[in-house]
Write the structure tokens for this entry.
Amino acid sequence: MRVLAFSAALLLALAPGAVIGQSFDGTYAIGDCAAPGDGAMTLAGATISFYESACRLSNPTALPGFEEAVMYDADCAGEGEIWKEKMLIMPALSGGLVVVTPGWASIYEQCR
């Protein structure tokens, strides 16, 4: 079990964005995918884009006990501002994604 956990952590460390690029790429929305408005979010490789901002994700870190959750360093820009923060991304039970940053969390449904 430890070898498996170590292998997963090593894979994440050697391939930034690989977890998102392989399994989470797509368009998501809070609520209605037909008219997502400011609830839209897109993942493409190591970039997560929101309504009026985007973040470059790096340094993926597996979280012990959360098998598919990944913590990232996010370098973000939007609305004339730039900032850095931590961002946790993990699958939601509904098939969408849970995205958590300090002081904020949302569940996005995958748009098909």
